[in-house]
Specification:
The structure holds two protein chains of two kinds. By secondary structure, chain A is α/β, with parallel strands linked by helices. Chain A has helices spanning 46-54, 93-104, 110-123, 139-152, 169-186, 197-203, 232-235, 239-262, and strands at residues 4-13, 20-30, 35-39, 61-66, 69-70, 78-81, 157-161, 189-194, 206-209, 222-223. Helix content of chain A is 34%, strand content 18%. In chain A, the strands form two sheets. Chain A has a six-stranded mixed β-sheet with strand order 6-7-8-3-9-10, sandwiched between helices. A four-stranded antiparallel β-sheet of chain A has the order 2-1-4-5, with helices on one face. In chain A, helix 3 packs across helix 4. The radius of gyration of chain A is 26 Å and the shape is elongated. Chain A starts with a strand and ends in a 41-residue tail after the last helix. By secondary structure, chain B is mainly alpha-helical. The longest helix of chain B is centred in the last third of the chain and has 39 residues, at 174-212. Classes of the chains: A alpha/beta, B mainly alpha. Chain A binds chain B through residues 54, 56, 73-76, 78-80, 82, 84, 86, 88-90, 99-100, 103-104, 153, and chain B through 162-163, 165-166, 168-172, 180-181, 184-185, 260-261.
Chain lengths: 303, 261
């Protein structure tokens, strides 16, 4: 019995007569302690998928179950790290994490909560910044706080929604290493949503591509059998890495062009003629733009 | 350093000097009834230099009058905030509430305090002696609450969906979401509303005093007009202006203390 299971999940938006189906017939199953990466194009429905697992929205059809219990609403047992960090700007780092701890463990003593918060701040190496407000932190630091907040709730499953998407490439590399290190320490079940296949392969046990939208669905699950700890520099020469990478890219590009072929649109060009805007339109000239169908005579000089 | 002093001290002084010059010119040319600056100062000296003296009910130092006005403004303004802020929150949170009450708000908003005051007096006619005070409070509250209501509503609607998602993931109760997320996030907008409301409240008190003859800056102004002592009108105008400016600065300081932006 899988830990997390999505069965035939579909989700669309819009009124009934103009519905855009974002996700169609998605199947996913995860075992406990697995690190799965889902790779997809921007706008394909990755965040929608994550919201369904987190419980922030309900599927139109199909079921999402965690430990065989259907997910109907969000909760601290599914920790979410949002793309935009979503730290409350009027609270300090410690207060932001403390808010999560208060909600997840209401019966703990104040001292125990305090210690728990400190422990998680040091886990992401941010103790010197514990009393700073988010506005005084860099993007990478904010994301680390967001991660610490999610971990502090001791969730059953950790959901990362393009957590490094808003960061520059160098910070992204540093944080990928951090995430990898933290995961090694507590082996949580993680679903990582990303648009970078390299990131997915570097961090995950399995990588699953999401086809291009609309009506996106999950492609074949590709296992990443590269032993940990993974060395970023050595990875570039690893044949297994290159094979997986090629497989993912081929699938993604094929799904995109498959979608492209299906679209045919009728182009309706505007019925306007070019005109020199330097010249005044009236009082003696035209009062409205010249339209093609109004041209009664046309003189063309032949060479 | 020298440049800084020039910009922030000399230039405003030049502005003041130009206004006084225009005043002097007007009073000696086309507005013969307007008292000149020097005459105004002569007549107002007592009131300004002995601001806390009380010589009679309507003959007191200028700061005593100001104090009466401020007391009334404080009560009316507090009423406006206490009523207006929850209405603003309800408007921002519920689209149905907005659809029900927004037309009414839009119709009541442009009504001048001069129109509300008689209604206020009628409403509290049965209260006897305190009718004029209650009528004035009613007028201040109903005129100054609209910026608070509307700015709070805008602020609530502008709370980023991200924060609400965090509240949902953390499973914050409705009251916790309100106090820990919605109110801090809306506070900058609320303060904008508070400042605007304070400006309107101060404006209304002068009108209310003029119409009801209560002691205060407005009452004194109207009385002196009827007594043909025009210098005091100008004194009152200057006082009203300075106090209004001071109140706005005070609000700005308070806003700085509660920065959550």
């Amino acid at each position: 019995m899988p830990f997390l299971a999505l069965q035939g999940v579909s989700k669309g938006f819009g009124p009934t007569n103009q519905r855009t189906e974002v996700l169609h017939d998605v199947h996913l199953s995860l075992e406990k302690g697995e690190f799965v990466a889902i790779v997809g194009y921007s706008g394909a429905g990755k965040t929608t998928l994550l919201n369904l697992i987190a419980g922030l929205s309900r599927p139109d059809s199909g079921t999402v179950t965690l430990n065989d219990l259907e997910i109907t609403s969000p909760g601290p047992d599914r920790g979410v790290v949002f793309q935009n960090y979503s730290l409350l700007p009027w609270l300090t780092v410690a207060e932001n994490i403390r808010l999560a701890v208060d909600q997840a463990f209401p019966n703990w003593s104040a001292a125990r909560k305090e210690q728990h918060v400190e422990q998680h701040i040091s886990k992401v190496n941010l103790l010197p910044a514990r009393d700073r407000k988010p506005a005084q932190l860099s993007g990478g630091m904010r994301q680390r706080v967001s991660l610490a907040r999610a971990l502090a709730m001791d969730p059953q499953i950790l959901l990362l929604d393009e957590p490094l998407g808003a960061l520059d490439a160098l910070t992204r590399a540093t944080l990928q290493d951090e995430i990898s290190r933290i995961w090694q320490e507590n082996q949580k079940t993680v679903v990582l949503i990303t648009n970078d296949p390299d990131e997915g392969i570097y961090l995950a046990d399995r990588i699953i591509p999401l086809t291009a939208g609309p009506r996106a669905t999950l492609g074949p699950s590709i296992p990443v059998e590269i032993p940990r700890p993974r060395d970023r520099r050595a990875l570039n020469h690893d044949p297994h890495f290159k094979a997986i990478r090629r497989q993912v890219f081929d699938f993604m590009l094929a799904s995109r062009s498959a979608n492209r072929v299906a679209i045919t649109r009728k182009l309706v060009l505007p019925d306007l003629e070019p005109e020199d805007l330097e010249q005044p339109r009236y009082p003696l000239g035209r009062r409205t733009p010249l339209r093609r169908h109004e041209i009664k005579r046309e003189t063309v000089e032949l060479p | 350093m020298k440049r800084f002093r020039f910009d922030s001290l000399i230039l405003p002084l030049i502005g003041f000097a130009l206004v006084v010059a225009a005043w002097y010119l007007s009073s000696s040319t086309w507005a013969k009834e307007l008292p000149s600056p020097s005459k105004t100062w002569e007549a107002s000296r007592d009131y300004v230099l002995k601001p806390f003296e009380k010589r009679g009910e309507m003959d007191q130092g200028i700061l005593r009058f100001t104090w009466y006005s401020l007391q009334l403004v404080a009560k009316g303004y507090f009423l406006a905030l206490v009523i207006g802020t929850p209405i603003g929150f309800l408007l921002g949170l519920s689209a149905t509430f907005t659809r029900i009450f927004d037309p009414i708000i839009q119709i009541l908003r442009p009504v001048s305090p001069l129109a509300w005051l008689p209604l206020g007096l009628v409403l509290f006619m049965g209260a006897g002696k305190s009718a004029s005070e209650l009528g004035a409070l009613f007028t201040i509250a109903i005129c100054s609450m609209w910026p608070t209501v509307l700015n709070t509503a805008v602020g609530v609607r502008a709370v980023p969906q991200d924060y609400l998602n965090v509240a949902r993931v953390l499973k914050l109760s409705r009251s916790k979401t309100l106090f820990k997320v919605l109110i801090p996030a809306t506070l900058p907008y609320m303060f904008t509303g508070f400042r605007l409301s304070l400006g309107i409240a101060w404006l209304v008190i002068v009108a209310a005093e003029m119409l009801t003859g209560r002691p205060g800056v407005g009452g004194f102004l109207w009385q002196e007009y009827n007594a043909l002592v025009y210098e005091h009108i100008i004194l009152c105008i200057l006082t009203i202006g300075f106090v209004g400016f001071g109140l706005d600065r005070l609000m700005s300081l308070i806003e700085g203390r509660f920065k959550t932006g």
